[in-house]
Every structure is written in structure tokens, then in C-alpha cells.
Amino acid sequence: MWHGLTSIPPHMASLNVGSHEVSDEQPLTLGLGTVNRLNLRHQFVNLPDFIWLWKIAAWSMGLSLAAYLLLAVTGSVLFSKRHSQRPRPKWLRPLHYIIGWLMVTLVLLLLAIGLVGTIGHYGNLGHSGHLIAGLSVVALVAVSAGSSTQISPQKPWARAVHLGTNIALFLGFAWVSYSGWQVVQKYL
Questions:
Q1: What HEC string does the chain produce?
Q2: Per-chain mean pLDDT for the chain
């Protein structure tokens, strides 16, 4: 099942548990029983086994960027209709919300894929700036979505926060795309 792995990368040759060094031959207790650490690594290291995960990530990122662009278009139309005091189509605001929540879902899916993929490959996090870029995008999307639910005549600050966050999100998506491409290049 985990064929194709011929050697363990040097950065995964040992594991520190507390202050004790654990070798590949020592058993590891996981609560469900004891396994050989070398066999456990075979399940998490083989990148070709994660190819389906990377495909989902690529599609999710592409769809997230498409959703962001659609949100920019629908948001601009909402903005212009409000300032020109012309009526907007009744379907436009619900469409903007649906696309927004779709983007939130896709970004959370990307977060999960990034965490699973990185931990699965390296055993821990923090191997590139992509983690910080990704968490920044997740935070910006959360603030944008949260502020969108507060927009009303009684809370004028919410619209400003929503628009400002979405402008910052443009830079966040650019950063996470660039850093993600650098990560992908390590595997190609």
C-alpha cells in the first residue's frame, strides 16, 4: 500500500519525545497499541500518496481566487447601486453572500489540507512562510465574513471594516499564492 518509499529523509530519522531521543527501531505507543516508528513513517512520508490532496488544494485555491474576483464584481455593483441610489437586483445581495460563504468554506478547506499535508510530510509545521501567509488569509477572510454580518445603517463601521479587509485580502491572496508556488516547486 505504501510502496515507492526507498529511504527516510534525514530530517525524519529520529524523533524527540520530551528529553529522550527515540530511534526508528523503538516501538511507539499511540494509545491503540504499539507500532514500529519506521512503519508509521511509511504512512506519512510518501508524497505520491498525497497527490489527491494536492489536487484538491489546487482546485480549492483556484476556486477561492475565482470567488474573490466574483465577490469584487458583485460588491462593486452593490457599492455603485447604493451610491447612485438606484435599486439593485433582488438576487444580487444573496448571490454575494452565497459566494462569500463558499469562499470561506474553500479557505477553511485549504487550511485543513495545508495542515494535514505539511504534518503528513514533515511531521510538524513551520517549514516556510506559507504557514504565516495562509493563516493571515484565514484571519482576513474570517474578519471579512464576520464584518459582513454586521453591515447595517446602525453599524457604519462594519462596511468600512469589510471593504478594508477585502482590500488587504487581495495582498493576502497574492502572498499566499506566491509562497504556495514556492512550496509546490520543492515537490516538483
A1: CCCCCCCCCHHHCCEEECCEEECCCCEEECCCCEEEHHHHHHHHHCHHHHHHHHHHHHHHHHHHHHHHHHHHHHHHHHHHHHHHCCCCCCCHHHHHHHHHHHHHHHHHHHHHHHHHHHHHHHCCCCCCCHHHHHHHHHHHHHHHHHHHCCCECCEHHHHHHHHHHHHHHHHHHHHHHHHHHHHHHHHC
A2: 80
